Amino acid sequence: IRGALLGRSLVLVGMMGSGKTSIGQRLAQRLGLPFKDADAEIVAAAAGMSIPDIFAKYGEAHFRDCERRVIARLLAGEPCVLATGGGAFMDETTRNRVKERGVSLWFDAAHDVLLRRVRRKGDRPLLQTSDPAAVLRRLMDERYPVYRQADIAVLSRDVAHEVMVEETIAALL
Ligand code: S3P
Q1: Which of 118, 152, 159, 173 gives 17 a disulfide partner, CB atoms 3.0 to 4.6 angstroms apart?
Q2: pLDDT tens digits, residue range 23-79?
Q3: 173 C-alpha vs ligand 1 centroid, how far in Å?
Q4: Would you say the CB of residue 91 lies under 6 angstroms from ligand 1?
Q5: Looking at the predicted complex, does its ipTM rise above 0.95?
Q6: How many Cβ atoms from other residues are within 10 Å of residue 116's Cβ?
Q7: Cα of 100 from ligand 1 centre, angstroms
Q8: Distance CA 173, CA 170 (A)
Q9: How far, in Å, from the CA of 120 to the mean position of ligand 1?
Q10: What's the topology of domain 2-172?
Q11: Measured from the CB, is residue 79 less than 6 Å from ligand 1?
């Protein structure tokens, strides 16, 4: 399976709640590759400041700059499974780097599935609004045409993680 990647990184893209981190960790284990999480690396680079705090203190544009730099650094390193934040692939520079150095995989998911998952974990600054369902819908409308440019798409559903991992591996073959 690793052969299908030809030494490149597997870059996971998709909305918040689509399973990039939870499936990505298990996928990395199966592929024998290190797992990297762009959000976690941004937090580490900011000396542990949380993503909501980075948004609140420095604004989204600054966060996006950090995100672009962190992803460039990770893609320049050894091959890995890289989970990116939901907005990362919207950046053209990042998309081009991913095209050069990685294989992109989009976790496509339905609105109700995403909404349920992000409600369980209320740490997404973009959804701190009175109508998260509407914001999620708007973000999906904006982003899905771009996510569709990923090399591979896998439908993320509410099934056991292991099932998602197997389906993802099958899509990579
Ligand atoms: C964001 C998604 C988050 C995080 C930040 C912005 C987005 O990552 O990068 O809150 O724009 O969709 P996850 O997709 O890992 O939740």
Answers
A1: 118
A2: 999 999 999 999 999 999 999 999 999 999 999 999 999 999 999 999 999 999 999
A3: 28
A4: no
A5: yes
A6: 12
A7: 23
A8: 5
A9: 15
A10: Rossmann fold (3.40.50)
A11: no
